[in-house]
# Entry
Amino acid sequence: MEIALVGAPNSGKSTFFNAATLGNAEVGNRPFVTIKPNEGIAYVKVKCPHNELGKECNPKHGYCKNGWRFVPIKLWDVAGLVPQAWQGKGLGNQFLNDIMQAQALIHVLDASGSTDTEGNIVGAGNFDPEITLTFLEKEIAYWIKGIIERSLKEVKHVSADASVKILAKHLSGLGISEDQVKEVVNSSDEFKGRASEWNAESLLKFAERVREISKPMIIAANKADLSVAEQNIEKLKKKYSSKEIIPVSAEAELALRKASESGLIEYVPGESDFKELKDIPENQKKALEYIRNKVLKKFGSTGVQHVLNSVAFELLELIVVFPVEDQNRWSDSKGNVLPDAFLLKKGSTALDLAYKVHTEIGKRFVAAIDCRTGQKIGKETQLKQLDVIKIITR
# Structure
C-alpha cells in the first residue's frame, strides 16, 4: 500500500513523514524544502494475535511493541502544492505526477493558520486554513480535468461505452482504473453520453469525483497545539462534516519517537501517554510535559498514528490477516510465531490471501483453516480483521 503526503509548502509534511517513518527528510520554515519525493516505511497499528496465544511473535517485517503489531506501508512525502500548480506553477507538474500512483492521500494542513498557501510564514491565526483545504483539492481536480480535455478529440465520434474506455486509457497513468471511471459515469445522469458532450462544469465535477474514488483523502490538521488551531479545526469539522479531519501534532510525535529511540521514555505510537525511563534534562523535560498537557491529554494522541490507521482501515477498507503454517502454534515451519501480516481489501477471500503469499500457493490452493476455530474454510470464504489462517495446498 502506498500513501502520499500532500499539502501546501511549509505545512509540516516532512515533519509528519519523519515522525511516521523516523526518516531524515529535510525540514525547514521555508517553502519547497522538499524538492524530490522522500520515500519511507510507516506503519499501521493493530492488536497482535500473539496476546491470545501467550507467546511473543517474530515479525519478518514491521515490529511488535507492548502487544501492538505495526504492519509496514509505503509513505511518500512530495513537494508542496501552490495555487495554479496544475498550470505548472511552483513544482506543480512534478508534484502531481509524484502523487498519482498512491492509493490514498493525506493532506497535511496547517490548522494554526500560521502559513499561507504559498508557504509563507504569517503567524498563527493570520490565515484561514479553509482556503488551503479547498484550493488543494481543486488543483488536483483541474489537473485531472486537463488530462481529460486532451482526450476529447478521440471521443467525439465514438459510442458512450467506447468513450469510457478512451477516458480510462488516458487516466490509467494516474493509477485510475476503468472500473473507477465507470463508477463515476454511472453515478449521475450528468455524465451520460460521450465525454466530449459534457460542459466545463461537468468535466470538473467528473475529475473531482474520480479523484475521490481513486485517491481518497484524509485531512491531518497539523500544528493542532498552536493558538487558534483548535478553533479552526472545529470550524472545519462543522463545515466539512463529510471529510475525515484529525487533529495532529507531527512535531510532538517526532519528539516522542526520538525520545523513545534514545531510551529516555517508553512510548508506543498512537498512545495517550508515555513513561519516563531515566532522568531527563530540564529543557527536554519541559518539552515533554508540554506535549503531555497540550497534545496527548487534549487530543488523546498526537494524531499521526490515528491518521495512518484511518487511511488504511476506513478510507481504503483494508484488513490485516496473518497466514501461518502450523495451525496450533500459529507459526511458520521454523517455529516463528505469526511471522507475516498482510494487508488485504475488506471482502478478500482465503484464495486471495493464498495468492498474496505467493502465486504458486494460490495456484495449488485446496482449502484453508481458521486457526482460532479449527474450521476448514473454502476459497470463497471472506476473511476478517486479524484472522489467523493456515493455507492447505495440493
Summary: Residues 28-35 have pLDDT under 50 and may be disordered. The CA atoms of residues 86 and 142 lie 6 Å apart. The domain at 318-393 is CATH 3.10.20.30 (Ubiquitin-like (UB roll)).
